[in-house]
Write a structure and sequence with these properties.
Radius of gyration: 18 Å
Shape: elongated
Low-confidence stretches: none
Number of strands: 0
Largest sheet: none
Order of helices and strands: HH
Strand content: under 5%
Number of domains: 1
Structural class: mainly alpha
Distance between the termini: 32 Å
Helix content: over 70%
Amino acid sequence: MLIPILIFDVALVAWSLHLMQEAITQQEFSLMLAGTLVALSAAAMLVVYFLMGHCLTYLTQIPYHG
């Protein structure tokens, strides 16, 4: 499951860099803001993936007393 998420994150980062390059070329602040938001969403997706992975690993190792 990690490989598709990494590929999607690389695509998001490439898209954000393209948006930022267009922002510099066209002198558009909104494109720079959009590129920053796309890069932040890619970073947040990786953080959430790793946090949930560690959380689920921890939860599955807790013994059940029922």
